[in-house]
Design brief:
Layout (H helix, E strand, L loop, with lengths): L16 H42 L5 H23 L10 H21 L5 H8 L2 H12 L6 H18 L1 H4 L5 H21 L5 H21 L11 H25 L2 H8 L2 H13 L5 H25 L1
Helix pairs in contact: 1-10, 1-11, 2-3, 2-9, 2-10, 3-8, 3-9, 4-12, 4-13, 5-6, 5-8, 6-13, 11-13
């Protein structure tokens, strides 16, 4: 005789469609933010590259102080207009004015050296030096920001300096005339980054950009007009001046926006695309050779920066 035994009931958890929907939305949102960050970075890449070309084109009729004066004037007018449109004028204060002043001295110095170097060395070599800015920031952070210098950061700094040596190659033919200004501009930009990090703790972007353009307009007028002669741009130079003024602000706005949308581990590799793009521009329009040492050294510098970003993310997780 057969016996029929009752089967044990298996409890099933209810299927929550909302959980799946939320996960899908999260993935789509992350992917969407990454794509948006990539689009903003394309704007930054265009702006940095256009500013380099415009700076070289203007060098025949304006000195670096005059270029900075006109760039700051255009930037100041843009900031004032945007402040009025978005009603953010109350954010502009004189709090920590000394730090604003110091930051803009560093940035003004670095940007003048950058415009000077762009006429002396290939675009790709100058951009490779720009990628060394985070290395200098890492070196200064323990002294100015009180950040700890861990083992991975030390490795990143050493790797970065190896990359700088590959780019400059002082053992082959000494230091070319534009190498020292390019290296000094990277150090000045690193100091600017450190001071900016301190300012962002209390000041808004509107406030920082206002003092950036206002103070550097004053610096430019003083430095360009100390001899009583400030050259006016020619008809052919005016479009380049406008390009420099607009791209100077747009580049940093695009970069900042991209970093808000996606982590630095995604944004940094996109930013590195500047190097091959500017190398091609230099090759096509200015007959600049595409140097394997510059590209290779820049890759080493990029690896050092990426190691630092990865170590920071690991420490936070």
């Amino acid at each position: 005789m057969f016996r029929f035994t009752s089967k044990k009931r298996v409890e099933r958890r209810p299927f929550h469609a909302n959980v799946v929907k939320n996960q899908v939305r999260f993935l789509l949102h992350s992917k969407s933010n990454t794509m948006r960050a990539a689009l903003w970075m394309s704007g930054a890449i265009f702006s940095f590259s256009a500013m380099a070309v415009a700076g070289r084109e203007l060098a025949s009729e304006l000195d670096t102080f005059e270029i900075m004066t006109y760039r700051s004037l255009i930037g100041f007018l843009i900031v004032i207009t945007c402040t009025g449109l978005f009603k953010t004028h109350r954010e502009i204060t004189t709090d920590r004015f000394g730090l604003h002043f110091t930051r803009n001295i560093a940035h003004f110095t670095g940007q003048n050296l950058w415009f000077y170097a762009v006429t002396l060395i290939p675009f790709a070599q100058l951009f490779a030096f720009e990628f060394s800015v985070p290395i200098w920031v890492m070196l200064a952070a323990p002294f100015l920001l009180g950040e700890r210098l861990g083992a991975l950061r030390i490795v990143a700094i050493i790797t970065g300096f190896i990359g700088i040596l590959i780019v400059t190659r002082p053992w082959m033919a000494g230091l070319a005339p534009g190498i020292i200004p390019a290296a000094l501009c990277a150090i000045a930009f690193a100091a600017t980054a450190v001071f900016t990090k301190q300012l962002t703790q209390t000041a808004s972007i509107t406030c920082i950009m206002f003092w950036l353009t206002a103070l550097q307009l004053v610096f430019g007028l003083v430095c360009a007009g100390y001899d009583g002669d400030i050259a006016l741009p020619t008809g052919t130079g005016i479009p380049w001046i406008i390009l420099v003024g607009c791209c100077g602000l747009l580049a940093h706005f695009c970069l900042t926006t991209a970093l808000k949308l996606a982590p630095a581990t995604i944004v940094t590799p996109i930013d590195f695309c500047r190097l091959p793009i500017i190398a091609i521009i230099g090759y096509v329009f200015y007959n600049e050779a595409i140097d394997a040492y510059i590209i290779g050294g820049a890759l080493v510098i990029f690896a050092a920066n990426y190691l630092n970003i990865w170590s920071e993310n690991k420490a936070r997780s």
